[in-house]
Amino acid sequence: MDTPVLHQLKFSHFNEKARFALDYKGVAHVRRTVFPGQHRDVARELAGTSTLPILVLDGRAVPDSSQIIAALEELRPEPPLYPSDPEDRRRALELEDHFDEQLGPASRRIVMSELATDVDLMIEAFSNENEQVRDGIRAGFPAISAQLVETFGLSDSRLEQDLGTLRDAGELAARTRGDSDYLVADRFTVADLTLAALVYPLAHPPQAPYGRPSLPRGTAACEAAGLAEWTREIYARHRAPSAAVEAAPA
Questions:
Q1: What is the pLDDT of residues 181-210, one digit of tens each?
Q2: Are residues 99 and 161 both part of a single domain?
Q3: For the chain, percent helix, then strand, then coil, each to nearest 5?
Q4: Helix (H, G, I), strand (E, B) or coil at 209
Q5: pLDDT value at position 231?
């Protein structure tokens, strides 16, 4: 089998979800990073979609972080992310879907709301230490900010709703865990990975790749929701070193 190739955005929680799974399972893979704005063309060409991540696995393009994890469970069952017990597995997948659909968009907008008001945060998130990119972001920031507002529907009222969704996720996680450190079956599963990955830009776990801009308001909200410390602990225990490898010469 050819080495799997992950087409990714670096600063994206759904892309981090796929990276987390690949690294947790120790699946050697190539990462090809796409700059925001260009990713839609890449996704459309690879899989007929508009978003990343996309994992090219044995010549097949697998879009969507949840589908990627399902494919990795078949490719490398150990260590498992899906519980073996059918009811536990159903609950873990139900939580994965819930967090993807509810928390994922809200967390993204919380991040984008902060980036759209601070050019230095925007540069830190996307410049990749490239001076030309930094200069371009600074010069074009008013237009970039306006585009973010339009693309993600950012507003004060929307932000309040999203912060409410973050709080709801924290309450759901606390209820579900009870006295356990984990959401399902008292062990690390896809549910824990998903929740941790979706708030990683707000929680700032040291093990997360690529560096993370400091988002004071978002991090404070994540702390208040009771998710920041838990996420950092999940990363400390389970976020394995990168399994990415360099691409072989063509």
A1: 999 999 999 999 999 999 999 999 999 988
A2: yes
A3: 60, 10, 35
A4: coil
A5: 98
